[in-house]
Amino acid sequence: MARLNKSDFRDSILELVKSTEAHPTARWVYDNLREEYPSVAIGTVYRNLNILVSEGLIKSIQFDDSTDHFDANTGKHYHFICERCGAIRDLQIPFDPSLEHLVEKHTEYKIHNHRLDFYGLCEQCKRT
Question: For the segment 3-40, what is each residue's pLDDT rounded down to a tens digit?
């Protein structure tokens, strides 16, 4: 049974989030760390995830389920969301900043960033 060292615990969270492309929730992180840290509380997981976000090491993103999902890919990128199983994956296509210029050209808005999500069926759901 591991003793809860804040730095080691936070490093464990970061490595866990980096180890998956599934955009995990805090509950998923909590469930996956319970064996190594059986006495940890879900609030401790949330606090440490938020610290990692504030340090810029991971991002917090909300999708249609209104739950915070965490992403170790902090660069600008797009996402695919499966409409059947809810899987969330990074898309390996170039981020297009020209979309921001297009919106500015046709509106009075000043655009700082944009987010674009694609919806459909993942490989597994497409087969069933």
Answer: 567 789 999 999 999 999 999 999 999 999 999 999 99
Domain layout of the chain by residue ranges: 6-71, 78-127
C-alpha Rg value of the chain to the nearest Å: 17
Q: Which pLDDT tens digit goes with each residue over 47-71?
A: 999 999 999 999 999 988 889 999 9
Element housing 59 (H / E): strand 59-62
pTM for this predicted structure: 0.85
Which H helix or E strand runs over 80?
A: strand 78-82
Which CATH number applies to 6-71?
Answer: 1.10.10.10
Helix (H, G, I), strand (E, B) or coil at 117: strand
- Alpha-carbon distance of 35 to 58, in angstroms, equals 23
